[in-house]
Amino acid sequence: MQKIRELRFAAAAAAPAIFALALLQGCSLPGTAEPLTLQETLPLPERWTFASEEGQSIELGTYWALLNDPLIDEFVAQAREQNYDIAQSLAQLRAAEAGLREARAARVPSATAGGGVGRDFGDLSRDEFQFSLNADLAWELDLFGRISSSIDASRADLAAAGFNAADLERVVVATVAIQTITARSVAAQLDFARRSLANQDDNLQIARWRNQAGLVSSLDVEQARTQRAQTAASIPLLEGDLVTAANAISTLIGDPPGEVYARLLADPRDVPTPPLSNSVEAPADILRMRPDVSAAEARLVGDLERIGIARAQLYPIARLTGTVGTSSFGIDDLFDVITGNIFASISQLIFDGGAARARVDASRAIADGSLAAWQQSILTALEDVETASVDLETSNERVIALVEASDGARNAAILGRSQYQAGLIDFQVLLNVESALLSAETSQISAEAARAIAFVQLARAMGGGWRMPTEQNSQDRDNGQ
Protein backbone atom coordinates (compact mmCIF):
# COMPACT_ATOMS: atom_id res chain seq x y z
CA MET A 1 0.00 0.00 0.00
CA GLN A 2 2.93 2.35 0.61
CA LYS A 3 4.08 1.88 -3.01
CA ILE A 4 0.60 2.58 -4.25
CA ARG A 5 0.57 5.85 -2.32
CA GLU A 6 3.95 6.72 -3.89
CA LEU A 7 2.47 6.24 -7.35
CA ARG A 8 -0.47 8.52 -6.58
CA PHE A 9 1.87 11.16 -5.14
CA ALA A 10 4.02 11.14 -8.31
CA ALA A 11 0.94 11.63 -10.52
CA ALA A 12 -0.32 14.48 -8.32
CA ALA A 13 3.07 16.20 -8.40
CA ALA A 14 3.14 16.04 -12.20
CA ALA A 15 -0.39 17.43 -12.59
CA PRO A 16 0.61 21.15 -12.68
CA ALA A 17 3.14 20.49 -15.42
CA ILE A 18 0.60 18.47 -17.40
CA PHE A 19 -1.95 21.26 -17.07
CA ALA A 20 0.60 23.85 -18.27
CA LEU A 21 1.48 21.76 -21.31
CA ALA A 22 -2.18 21.32 -22.15
CA LEU A 23 -2.62 25.10 -22.11
CA LEU A 24 0.36 25.50 -24.41
CA GLN A 25 -1.10 22.97 -26.82
CA GLY A 26 -4.05 25.29 -27.36
CA CYS A 27 -1.61 27.95 -28.61
CA SER A 28 -0.49 25.96 -31.66
CA LEU A 29 0.95 27.99 -34.50
CA PRO A 30 -0.49 27.53 -37.99
CA GLY A 31 1.68 25.36 -40.18
CA THR A 32 1.53 27.68 -43.16
CA ALA A 33 -0.71 29.99 -45.12
CA GLU A 34 -3.48 28.66 -47.31
CA PRO A 35 -2.62 28.17 -51.00
CA LEU A 36 -3.37 31.03 -53.32
CA THR A 37 -6.54 30.84 -55.35
CA LEU A 38 -6.40 30.02 -59.04
CA GLN A 39 -7.19 33.55 -60.18
CA GLU A 40 -4.48 34.93 -57.89
CA THR A 41 -1.80 32.67 -59.33
CA LEU A 42 -2.80 32.42 -62.99
CA PRO A 43 -5.70 34.44 -64.42
CA LEU A 44 -7.91 32.29 -66.65
CA PRO A 45 -9.62 33.35 -69.87
CA GLU A 46 -13.38 33.54 -69.60
CA ARG A 47 -13.86 32.01 -73.05
CA TRP A 48 -11.95 29.77 -75.40
CA THR A 49 -10.07 31.19 -78.34
CA PHE A 50 -10.59 28.24 -80.71
CA ALA A 51 -12.82 25.75 -78.90
CA SER A 52 -16.57 26.14 -79.24
CA GLU A 53 -18.99 26.21 -76.34
CA GLU A 54 -21.92 25.45 -78.65
CA GLY A 55 -23.02 22.02 -79.76
CA GLN A 56 -23.84 18.68 -78.19
CA SER A 57 -22.41 18.04 -74.75
CA ILE A 58 -20.19 14.99 -74.38
CA GLU A 59 -20.88 12.43 -71.67
CA LEU A 60 -17.29 12.44 -70.49
CA GLY A 61 -17.63 9.40 -68.24
CA THR A 62 -18.29 7.14 -71.27
CA TYR A 63 -17.31 9.29 -74.24
CA TRP A 64 -15.76 6.37 -76.16
CA ALA A 65 -19.22 4.81 -76.50
CA LEU A 66 -20.07 7.62 -78.95
CA LEU A 67 -17.68 5.99 -81.43
CA ASN A 68 -20.08 3.02 -81.73
CA ASP A 69 -17.33 0.41 -81.86
CA PRO A 70 -18.00 -2.61 -79.63
CA LEU A 71 -14.32 -3.56 -79.51
CA ILE A 72 -13.41 -0.15 -78.10
CA ASP A 73 -16.06 -0.63 -75.42
CA GLU A 74 -14.70 -4.09 -74.55
CA PHE A 75 -11.06 -3.05 -74.53
CA VAL A 76 -11.70 0.01 -72.37
CA ALA A 77 -13.65 -2.01 -69.83
CA GLN A 78 -10.91 -4.62 -69.71
CA ALA A 79 -8.15 -2.02 -69.37
CA ARG A 80 -9.92 -0.41 -66.42
CA GLU A 81 -9.92 -3.73 -64.59
CA GLN A 82 -6.64 -5.34 -65.71
CA ASN A 83 -4.17 -2.61 -66.67
CA TYR A 84 -1.05 -3.07 -64.57
CA ASP A 85 -0.09 0.60 -64.52
CA ILE A 86 -3.47 1.35 -62.97
CA ALA A 87 -2.91 -1.48 -60.49
CA GLN A 88 0.41 0.11 -59.47
CA SER A 89 -1.23 3.50 -58.99
CA LEU A 90 -3.93 1.97 -56.79
CA ALA A 91 -1.22 0.28 -54.72
CA GLN A 92 0.43 3.68 -54.27
CA LEU A 93 -2.94 5.04 -53.23
CA ARG A 94 -3.27 2.37 -50.54
CA ALA A 95 0.24 3.22 -49.34
CA ALA A 96 -0.73 6.90 -49.11
CA GLU A 97 -3.84 5.95 -47.14
CA ALA A 98 -1.67 3.95 -44.72
CA GLY A 99 0.65 6.95 -44.44
CA LEU A 100 -2.29 9.10 -43.36
CA ARG A 101 -3.26 6.59 -40.70
CA GLU A 102 0.32 6.59 -39.47
CA ALA A 103 0.38 10.40 -39.27
CA ARG A 104 -2.90 10.47 -37.36
CA ALA A 105 -1.54 7.92 -34.87
CA ALA A 106 0.94 10.54 -33.62
CA ARG A 107 -1.96 12.40 -31.95
CA VAL A 108 -2.63 9.65 -29.45
CA PRO A 109 -0.28 8.27 -26.80
CA SER A 110 1.85 5.26 -27.56
CA ALA A 111 2.09 2.44 -25.05
CA THR A 112 4.36 -0.55 -24.80
CA ALA A 113 4.20 -3.41 -22.36
CA GLY A 114 6.68 -6.03 -21.29
CA GLY A 115 7.22 -8.74 -18.80
CA GLY A 116 9.80 -11.20 -17.64
CA VAL A 117 10.69 -14.01 -15.33
CA GLY A 118 14.07 -14.65 -13.71
CA ARG A 119 15.86 -16.57 -10.99
CA ASP A 120 18.98 -15.80 -9.00
CA PHE A 121 21.82 -18.23 -8.50
CA GLY A 122 24.36 -18.38 -5.71
CA ASP A 123 24.71 -19.12 -2.04
CA LEU A 124 22.58 -16.18 -0.89
CA SER A 125 19.99 -16.33 -3.67
CA ARG A 126 16.36 -17.12 -3.10
CA ASP A 127 15.14 -20.39 -4.47
CA GLU A 128 12.17 -18.73 -6.20
CA PHE A 129 11.30 -17.29 -9.60
CA GLN A 130 10.84 -13.52 -9.80
CA PHE A 131 8.07 -12.26 -12.09
CA SER A 132 7.75 -8.71 -13.44
CA LEU A 133 5.34 -6.71 -15.59
CA ASN A 134 5.73 -3.14 -16.85
CA ALA A 135 4.13 -0.66 -19.22
CA ASP A 136 5.57 2.53 -20.73
CA LEU A 137 3.49 5.45 -22.02
CA ALA A 138 4.66 8.33 -24.26
CA TRP A 139 2.73 11.25 -25.71
CA GLU A 140 3.92 14.27 -27.66
CA LEU A 141 1.73 17.37 -27.34
CA ASP A 142 1.15 19.22 -30.60
CA LEU A 143 2.27 22.61 -29.32
CA PHE A 144 3.23 24.26 -32.61
CA GLY A 145 1.30 22.28 -35.19
CA ARG A 146 3.92 19.73 -36.23
CA ILE A 147 1.55 16.79 -35.90
CA SER A 148 -1.40 18.66 -37.39
CA SER A 149 0.73 19.74 -40.34
CA SER A 150 1.95 16.17 -40.78
CA ILE A 151 -1.62 14.92 -40.88
CA ASP A 152 -2.66 17.63 -43.34
CA ALA A 153 0.36 16.86 -45.54
CA SER A 154 -0.46 13.15 -45.50
CA ARG A 155 -4.07 13.94 -46.33
CA ALA A 156 -2.88 16.01 -49.31
CA ASP A 157 -0.60 13.14 -50.36
CA LEU A 158 -3.58 10.81 -50.27
CA ALA A 159 -5.60 13.21 -52.41
CA ALA A 160 -2.71 13.53 -54.86
CA ALA A 161 -2.34 9.75 -55.06
CA GLY A 162 -6.06 9.41 -55.76
CA PHE A 163 -5.98 12.01 -58.51
CA ASN A 164 -2.82 10.46 -59.96
CA ALA A 165 -4.60 7.12 -60.20
CA ALA A 166 -7.60 8.82 -61.80
CA ASP A 167 -5.38 10.67 -64.27
CA LEU A 168 -3.62 7.46 -65.23
CA GLU A 169 -6.99 5.87 -65.91
CA ARG A 170 -7.90 8.89 -68.05
CA VAL A 171 -4.74 8.44 -70.10
CA VAL A 172 -5.06 4.65 -70.38
CA VAL A 173 -8.68 4.82 -71.54
CA ALA A 174 -7.80 7.37 -74.22
CA THR A 175 -4.75 5.37 -75.32
CA VAL A 176 -6.81 2.19 -75.67
CA ALA A 177 -9.37 4.03 -77.81
CA ILE A 178 -6.65 5.65 -79.94
CA GLN A 179 -4.81 2.37 -80.46
CA THR A 180 -8.04 0.63 -81.47
CA ILE A 181 -8.82 3.43 -83.94
CA THR A 182 -5.29 3.08 -85.30
CA ALA A 183 -5.77 -0.66 -85.67
CA ARG A 184 -9.05 -0.10 -87.51
CA SER A 185 -7.30 2.36 -89.82
CA VAL A 186 -4.42 -0.01 -90.56
CA ALA A 187 -6.84 -2.89 -91.15
CA ALA A 188 -8.86 -0.76 -93.60
CA GLN A 189 -5.69 0.28 -95.46
CA LEU A 190 -4.57 -3.35 -95.53
CA ASP A 191 -7.91 -4.46 -96.96
CA PHE A 192 -7.79 -1.78 -99.65
CA ALA A 193 -4.17 -2.66 -100.50
CA ARG A 194 -5.13 -6.29 -100.99
CA ARG A 195 -8.06 -5.33 -103.23
CA SER A 196 -5.78 -3.00 -105.21
CA LEU A 197 -3.28 -5.83 -105.59
CA ALA A 198 -6.01 -8.03 -107.08
CA ASN A 199 -6.89 -5.28 -109.60
CA GLN A 200 -3.23 -4.82 -110.46
CA ASP A 201 -2.88 -8.55 -111.04
CA ASP A 202 -5.63 -8.20 -113.62
CA ASN A 203 -3.93 -5.16 -115.15
CA LEU A 204 -0.65 -7.09 -115.44
CA GLN A 205 -2.40 -10.03 -117.10
CA ILE A 206 -4.16 -7.71 -119.55
CA ALA A 207 -0.87 -5.98 -120.36
CA ARG A 208 0.77 -9.32 -121.07
CA TRP A 209 -2.08 -10.41 -123.35
CA ARG A 210 -1.94 -7.17 -125.26
CA ASN A 211 1.84 -7.44 -125.56
CA GLN A 212 1.58 -10.99 -126.85
CA ALA A 213 -1.00 -9.80 -129.38
CA GLY A 214 1.43 -7.11 -130.51
CA LEU A 215 -0.89 -4.29 -129.48
CA VAL A 216 1.48 -2.74 -126.92
CA SER A 217 5.17 -2.87 -126.18
CA SER A 218 6.76 -4.64 -123.26
CA LEU A 219 6.93 -1.24 -121.56
CA ASP A 220 3.32 -1.67 -120.42
CA VAL A 221 4.14 -5.07 -118.94
CA GLU A 222 7.12 -3.71 -117.00
CA GLN A 223 5.14 -0.75 -115.70
CA ALA A 224 2.34 -3.10 -114.57
CA ARG A 225 4.89 -5.33 -112.84
CA THR A 226 6.41 -2.35 -111.07
CA GLN A 227 3.06 -1.07 -109.84
CA ARG A 228 2.00 -4.49 -108.60
CA ALA A 229 5.30 -5.11 -106.78
CA GLN A 230 5.11 -1.75 -105.02
CA THR A 231 1.61 -2.49 -103.79
CA ALA A 232 2.62 -6.02 -102.72
CA ALA A 233 5.55 -4.56 -100.78
CA SER A 234 3.22 -2.29 -98.77
CA ILE A 235 1.11 -5.21 -97.54
CA PRO A 236 3.68 -6.80 -95.17
CA LEU A 237 4.40 -3.36 -93.73
CA LEU A 238 0.70 -2.82 -93.01
CA GLU A 239 0.42 -6.31 -91.54
CA GLY A 240 3.29 -5.53 -89.20
CA ASP A 241 1.67 -2.23 -88.21
CA LEU A 242 -1.57 -4.06 -87.42
CA VAL A 243 0.27 -6.56 -85.21
CA THR A 244 2.07 -3.69 -83.46
CA ALA A 245 -1.21 -1.89 -82.72
CA ALA A 246 -2.86 -5.12 -81.55
CA ASN A 247 0.05 -5.93 -79.23
CA ALA A 248 -0.03 -2.41 -77.78
CA ILE A 249 -3.72 -2.90 -76.98
CA SER A 250 -2.94 -6.30 -75.44
CA THR A 251 -0.44 -4.72 -73.05
CA LEU A 252 -2.89 -1.98 -72.12
CA ILE A 253 -5.69 -4.42 -71.31
CA GLY A 254 -3.43 -6.88 -69.49
CA ASP A 255 -3.54 -9.71 -72.05
CA PRO A 256 -0.66 -11.56 -73.72
CA PRO A 257 -0.24 -10.86 -77.45
CA GLY A 258 -2.42 -12.71 -79.94
CA GLU A 259 -5.97 -12.53 -78.67
CA VAL A 260 -6.56 -8.90 -79.60
CA TYR A 261 -5.16 -9.46 -83.09
CA ALA A 262 -7.57 -12.37 -83.62
CA ARG A 263 -10.51 -10.30 -82.37
CA LEU A 264 -9.65 -7.46 -84.73
CA LEU A 265 -9.57 -9.84 -87.68
CA ALA A 266 -12.79 -11.56 -86.58
CA ASP A 267 -14.72 -8.27 -86.30
CA PRO A 268 -13.61 -5.99 -89.18
CA ARG A 269 -15.20 -2.54 -89.16
CA ASP A 270 -14.69 0.85 -90.73
CA VAL A 271 -12.86 3.58 -88.88
CA PRO A 272 -15.29 4.99 -86.26
CA THR A 273 -17.05 8.28 -87.03
CA PRO A 274 -17.22 10.55 -83.96
CA PRO A 275 -19.81 13.22 -83.20
CA LEU A 276 -18.68 16.42 -84.88
CA SER A 277 -20.54 19.20 -83.07
CA ASN A 278 -19.30 19.12 -79.48
CA SER A 279 -19.65 21.78 -76.82
CA VAL A 280 -16.74 22.57 -74.53
CA GLU A 281 -17.30 23.81 -70.99
CA ALA A 282 -15.81 27.09 -69.80
CA PRO A 283 -12.07 26.97 -69.00
CA ALA A 284 -12.57 27.08 -65.23
CA ASP A 285 -15.04 24.17 -65.40
CA ILE A 286 -12.66 22.12 -67.53
CA LEU A 287 -9.85 22.57 -65.01
CA ARG A 288 -12.06 21.23 -62.24
CA MET A 289 -12.58 18.05 -64.27
CA ARG A 290 -8.88 17.47 -64.97
CA PRO A 291 -7.41 15.05 -62.39
CA ASP A 292 -3.85 16.01 -63.33
CA VAL A 293 -4.55 19.62 -62.36
CA SER A 294 -6.19 18.49 -59.12
CA ALA A 295 -3.21 16.22 -58.37
CA ALA A 296 -0.79 19.11 -58.90
CA GLU A 297 -2.87 21.28 -56.57
CA ALA A 298 -2.93 18.54 -53.91
CA ARG A 299 0.86 18.19 -54.13
CA LEU A 300 1.15 21.95 -53.65
CA VAL A 301 -1.03 21.79 -50.53
CA GLY A 302 1.08 18.97 -49.12
CA ASP A 303 4.34 20.80 -49.77
CA LEU A 304 2.99 23.95 -48.12
CA GLU A 305 2.12 21.91 -45.04
CA ARG A 306 5.64 20.51 -44.98
CA ILE A 307 6.91 24.04 -44.51
CA GLY A 308 4.99 24.06 -41.23
CA ILE A 309 6.47 20.68 -40.28
CA ALA A 310 10.00 21.96 -40.86
CA ARG A 311 9.27 25.24 -39.08
CA ALA A 312 7.91 23.42 -36.01
CA GLN A 313 11.35 21.92 -35.45
CA LEU A 314 12.51 25.40 -34.41
CA TYR A 315 10.04 25.54 -31.51
CA PRO A 316 9.85 23.62 -28.22
CA ILE A 317 8.73 19.99 -28.15
CA ALA A 318 6.63 18.88 -25.18
CA ARG A 319 6.28 15.25 -24.15
CA LEU A 320 4.62 13.26 -21.41
CA THR A 321 6.13 9.95 -20.43
CA GLY A 322 5.10 7.50 -17.80
CA THR A 323 5.86 4.02 -16.53
CA VAL A 324 4.01 1.58 -14.35
CA GLY A 325 5.24 -1.81 -13.22
CA THR A 326 5.21 -4.54 -10.63
CA SER A 327 7.38 -7.46 -9.62
CA SER A 328 7.23 -10.23 -7.05
CA PHE A 329 8.46 -13.68 -6.17
CA GLY A 330 5.43 -15.65 -7.16
CA ILE A 331 2.38 -15.13 -9.36
CA ASP A 332 -0.19 -14.87 -6.60
CA ASP A 333 1.09 -11.59 -5.14
CA LEU A 334 2.30 -10.08 -8.44
CA PHE A 335 -0.18 -7.18 -8.33
CA ASP A 336 0.06 -6.44 -4.60
CA VAL A 337 2.64 -3.68 -5.10
CA ILE A 338 2.50 -1.42 -8.19
CA THR A 339 4.93 1.42 -8.78
CA GLY A 340 4.99 4.08 -11.47
CA ASN A 341 5.77 7.63 -12.44
CA ILE A 342 4.68 10.36 -14.83
CA PHE A 343 7.14 12.86 -16.28
CA ALA A 344 6.45 16.00 -18.32
CA SER A 345 9.29 17.53 -20.33
CA ILE A 346 9.93 20.37 -22.77
CA SER A 347 12.93 20.42 -25.09
CA GLN A 348 14.13 23.22 -27.31
CA LEU A 349 16.62 23.12 -30.13
CA ILE A 350 19.56 25.41 -29.29
CA PHE A 351 22.11 24.84 -32.00
CA ASP A 352 22.39 22.47 -34.97
CA GLY A 353 24.58 24.45 -37.32
CA GLY A 354 21.57 25.80 -39.23
CA ALA A 355 20.27 22.39 -40.30
CA ALA A 356 16.69 23.04 -39.14
CA ARG A 357 16.47 26.42 -40.90
CA ALA A 358 17.98 24.86 -44.01
CA ARG A 359 15.14 22.31 -43.96
CA VAL A 360 12.63 25.17 -43.78
CA ASP A 361 14.26 26.87 -46.76
CA ALA A 362 14.33 23.60 -48.69
CA SER A 363 10.62 23.05 -47.95
CA ARG A 364 9.81 26.52 -49.23
CA ALA A 365 11.79 25.91 -52.41
CA ILE A 366 9.95 22.62 -52.98
CA ALA A 367 6.61 24.39 -52.46
CA ASP A 368 7.64 27.05 -54.99
CA GLY A 369 8.38 24.29 -57.46
CA SER A 370 5.01 22.67 -56.79
CA LEU A 371 3.30 26.01 -57.38
CA ALA A 372 5.04 26.29 -60.75
CA ALA A 373 4.05 22.69 -61.57
CA TRP A 374 0.42 23.48 -60.73
CA GLN A 375 0.46 26.54 -62.95
CA GLN A 376 2.10 24.52 -65.74
CA SER A 377 -0.58 21.84 -65.47
CA ILE A 378 -3.23 24.53 -65.93
CA LEU A 379 -1.60 25.88 -69.07
CA THR A 380 -1.15 22.35 -70.41
CA ALA A 381 -4.84 21.60 -69.85
CA LEU A 382 -5.89 24.76 -71.70
CA GLU A 383 -3.49 23.93 -74.53
CA ASP A 384 -4.83 20.38 -74.82
CA VAL A 385 -8.42 21.56 -75.20
CA GLU A 386 -7.67 24.29 -77.72
CA THR A 387 -5.43 22.06 -79.85
CA ALA A 388 -7.74 19.04 -79.85
CA SER A 389 -10.72 21.22 -80.74
CA VAL A 390 -8.93 22.65 -83.76
CA ASP A 391 -7.64 19.20 -84.76
CA LEU A 392 -11.16 17.79 -84.74
CA GLU A 393 -12.50 20.61 -86.90
CA THR A 394 -9.66 20.59 -89.43
CA SER A 395 -9.53 16.79 -89.70
CA ASN A 396 -13.26 16.73 -90.44
CA GLU A 397 -12.77 19.29 -93.22
CA ARG A 398 -9.97 17.14 -94.59
CA VAL A 399 -12.19 14.03 -94.54
CA ILE A 400 -14.90 15.84 -96.50
CA ALA A 401 -12.42 16.87 -99.19
CA LEU A 402 -10.80 13.43 -99.38
CA VAL A 403 -14.14 11.65 -99.65
CA GLU A 404 -14.80 13.64 -102.80
CA ALA A 405 -11.29 12.93 -104.06
CA SER A 406 -11.69 9.20 -103.43
CA ASP A 407 -15.03 9.14 -105.22
CA GLY A 408 -13.54 10.85 -108.26
CA ALA A 409 -10.49 8.56 -108.20
CA ARG A 410 -12.67 5.43 -108.08
CA ASN A 411 -14.71 6.57 -111.07
CA ALA A 412 -11.55 7.47 -112.96
CA ALA A 413 -10.03 4.05 -112.20
CA ILE A 414 -13.13 2.24 -113.47
CA LEU A 415 -13.10 4.26 -116.68
CA GLY A 416 -9.34 3.84 -117.05
CA ARG A 417 -9.48 0.05 -116.82
CA SER A 418 -12.28 -0.26 -119.34
CA GLN A 419 -10.60 2.16 -121.78
CA TYR A 420 -7.25 0.38 -121.47
CA GLN A 421 -8.89 -2.96 -122.17
CA ALA A 422 -10.49 -1.37 -125.26
CA GLY A 423 -7.14 0.06 -126.32
CA LEU A 424 -8.27 3.67 -126.06
CA ILE A 425 -5.49 4.76 -123.67
CA ASP A 426 -1.96 3.61 -122.97
CA PHE A 427 -0.90 2.03 -119.70
CA GLN A 428 0.71 5.19 -118.37
CA VAL A 429 -2.70 6.83 -118.10
CA LEU A 430 -4.09 3.79 -116.28
CA LEU A 431 -1.06 3.76 -114.02
CA ASN A 432 -1.67 7.39 -113.08
CA VAL A 433 -5.35 6.89 -112.25
CA GLU A 434 -4.61 3.70 -110.24
CA SER A 435 -1.92 5.51 -108.24
CA ALA A 436 -4.26 8.43 -107.63
CA LEU A 437 -6.94 6.04 -106.33
CA LEU A 438 -4.53 4.30 -103.96
CA SER A 439 -3.30 7.64 -102.62
CA ALA A 440 -6.80 9.10 -102.23
CA GLU A 441 -8.23 6.03 -100.46
CA THR A 442 -5.25 5.75 -98.11
CA SER A 443 -5.38 9.46 -97.31
CA GLN A 444 -9.13 9.27 -96.62
CA ILE A 445 -8.72 6.36 -94.23
CA SER A 446 -5.87 8.15 -92.43
CA ALA A 447 -7.93 11.36 -92.20
CA GLU A 448 -10.91 9.47 -90.77
CA ALA A 449 -8.63 7.92 -88.15
CA ALA A 450 -7.15 11.35 -87.36
CA ARG A 451 -10.67 12.74 -86.91
CA ALA A 452 -11.69 9.97 -84.52
CA ILE A 453 -8.41 10.32 -82.60
CA ALA A 454 -8.94 14.10 -82.37
CA PHE A 455 -12.34 13.45 -80.77
CA VAL A 456 -10.76 11.12 -78.21
CA GLN A 457 -8.05 13.68 -77.49
CA LEU A 458 -10.66 16.40 -77.05
CA ALA A 459 -12.67 14.29 -74.61
CA ARG A 460 -9.49 13.40 -72.73
CA ALA A 461 -8.43 17.06 -72.65
CA MET A 462 -11.83 17.94 -71.18
CA GLY A 463 -11.21 15.51 -68.33
CA GLY A 464 -13.12 12.50 -69.60
CA GLY A 465 -12.46 8.84 -68.98
CA TRP A 466 -11.70 8.57 -65.27
CA ARG A 467 -13.37 7.61 -62.04
CA MET A 468 -12.28 8.50 -58.52
CA PRO A 469 -10.86 5.27 -57.03
CA THR A 470 -12.99 3.65 -54.32
CA GLU A 471 -10.11 3.91 -51.86
CA GLN A 472 -10.25 7.68 -52.13
CA ASN A 473 -13.54 7.64 -50.23
CA SER A 474 -11.51 6.96 -47.10
CA GLN A 475 -10.78 10.71 -46.98
CA ASP A 476 -14.32 11.25 -45.79
CA ARG A 477 -13.35 9.57 -42.53
CA ASP A 478 -10.75 12.26 -41.87
CA ASN A 479 -13.15 15.17 -41.60
CA GLY A 480 -13.08 15.04 -37.83
CA GLN A 481 -9.29 14.99 -37.61
Please, could you describe this protein's structure?
By secondary structure, the protein is of the alpha+beta class. It has 11 helices and 4 strands. The protein has helices at 2-25, 38-41, 70-82, 84-105, 146-212, 218-253, 259-266, 283-289, 291-312, 355-421, 427-461, and strands at residues 110-119, 129-141, 317-328, 339-347. A 4-stranded antiparallel β-sheet has the order 1-2-3-4. α3 (70-82) runs antiparallel to α5. The longest helix has 67 residues, at 146-212.
Structural features:
481 residues, 11 helices, four-stranded antiparallel beta sheet, disordered C terminus, alpha+beta, disordered N terminus, single chain
